Amino acid sequence: MAKQVLIVDDEPDLRRALTVRLSSAGFQCETAANGREGLAKAQHTPPDLIVVDLLMPEMNGAALCRELARD
Predict the structure, then answer these.
(1) What does the pLDDT read at residue 71?
(2) Would you say residue 1 has pLDDT above 90?
């Protein structure tokens, strides 16, 4: 079974590039456009790894990491 990676970034091109690269390496990728969406996805289906952009609107990467650590 492939390892799950959640990519959380507000830049669509970067999300797409990371998804293509990681998928070609055998990872199953899920994406989120902001921290709130990423938090919801991580809580619903916990990934093996989360790649997070620190500077995002709505909920930045640091706040996302704090919320995930509380969960």
Answers:
(1) 80
(2) no
Mean pLDDT value across residues 11-15 = 98
Global pTM value: 0.94
Angstrom distance (rounded) from CA 14 to CA 51: 11
CA distances, 59 to each of 12, 20, 24, 51 (Å): 17, 25, 29, 15
> Residue 25's closest CA among 17, 33, 36?
17
Q: Would you tell me how many other CB atoms lie within 10 Å of the CB of residue 46?
A: 12
Host H or E run for residue 39: helix 35-44
Average pLDDT over residues 2-8: 97
Amino acid at 1: M
Place of tokens 């799950």: 4
In 3D space, the residue among 30, 43, 33 whose CA is nearest the CA of residue 69 turns out to be 43
